[in-house]
Amino acid sequence: MPPTPTNADSTPLHDELRALLREFLAQHETLLGLTTEHHEAIRQADPLRCERVMQAERNTLASIAELESRRQNLVRRAQTEIRPAQAVARLSDLARCAPEGERAGLIEMAERLRGLVARVQEEQNIVRVVSRVLLAHMEGLMRQVARSLSHAGTYARSGAVAAGSPIVTSLDVRL
Question: Which residues of 96-127 are buried (b: 16+ CB within 10 A; e: fewer)?
Fold first, then answer.
């Protein structure tokens, strides 16, 4: 059984890893919920809700970025403390280096996190596609409105401004 590495304030690596995994899981579960809510807001064409959800997503991503910084520090620390030095780059690698009694639970948490990250990515891809479809739909509507309101023929069929036929008008300014 490998020794339990600790840092200067006596917190074992595996305890820090467990806390970090819990926080990563919580933040990614929050992000998954927000992504689902974002999809629903787009489906309902609710721009205010979209903006609120996007702000919450930005805040959650900022928290995840802070956790990633902590993860990198933990990996650096593990690379110096674990003897013999092992290739440690991911949280699951750290979990495999934990003491026997802690290892299985940490590996399971790391695998849950990996699955959750994959689900978040899938959901975000769906939101990206839905957003593009909505944008294309809105652009089509704008083109139709432009065509309908352009009595002067200023807009081409695509909805873009095009050189049309000149409009001849006159105004009598005599009194």
Answer: ebbeeebbeebbebbeebeebbeebeebbeeb
